[in-house]
Amino acid sequence: MARASTTSDTFNAVAEPRRREILSYLAGAERPVGEIVEALGLEQTSVSKHLRVLRNVGLVRMRCQGRQKLYRTNAEAIRPLHEWAGTFERYWQHQLHRVKARAEAMALQGLSDLKPSDTKLKEK
Amino acid sequence: MARASTTSDTFNAVAEPRRREILSYLAGAERPVGEIVEALGLEQTSVSKHLRVLRNVGLVRMRCQGRQKLYRTNAEAIRPLHEWAGTFERYWQHQLHRVKARAEAMALQGLSDLKPSDTKLKEK
DNA sequence: TTGACATATGCCTATATCGGCATGTAATGT
DNA sequence: ACATTACATGCCGATATAGGCATATGTCAA
Known about the structure:
The structure is a homodimer. Chain A is mainly α. Chain A has helices at 10-13, 17-25, 33-40, 44-56, 79-86, 89-108, and strands at 31-32, 60-65, 68-73.
């Protein structure tokens, strides 16, 4: 099997770089498809297809106006993602504290026993 | 062409539900692969492959201990995602304010001119 | 009605994935 | 040295996707 249905999942929808660009572009204001095409330099059919995916997961809203269709980002649909990522916040803060504490401890010791073989400085 | 290289992108890495499960499971503590397999009820080879993807984008860290390999989530690598989603925060707040304002306006008017044909209640 | 404009959709191909299975590799125990 | 444990990797098939192209749909204008 391949990846589990991209089309119906917010995480998969934003995994595509162009879709993220579109979301950012449509965050502040409503725009017709043509403007997106021009602004982002993409093919029209490509934009239409990305918009379709984004609509299916509720990341954008559409409104018809004459022969144009105005799209805008539905920012609320991005919240779940923000919140999911936020559940890890306490952990990265924890890690930062550890790093900071270690740095301070070393400073107190005047880095006297800091030997390359002893440290995990290669972190990264 | 298909989707642009999933393996080297954080957004794509977390697009996979099982990988998200693994990240959550490894957020608090270091664990050997076997425990992940057992805890999440996945195939061992599948877990290994997901861990590989997660490692490639820095979402997990690995440490060898005897014949085990201990993995843990590198929460910091999730921050960019959190921050990206956070750039939309002002917009969803904005939308909430609009909704609230409209609701209050309607309340003030006693909903006198609220007609089904007039509203976009069919919104989903 | 005819035609131009704005957007959507269908078909096709190349590619990238996930999962399953078998196998490879490294560390430990006997 | 050999078996066992703990993971990783390679190959395969099924599927889903993105992009390109042609075309369909829908709206306005003359």
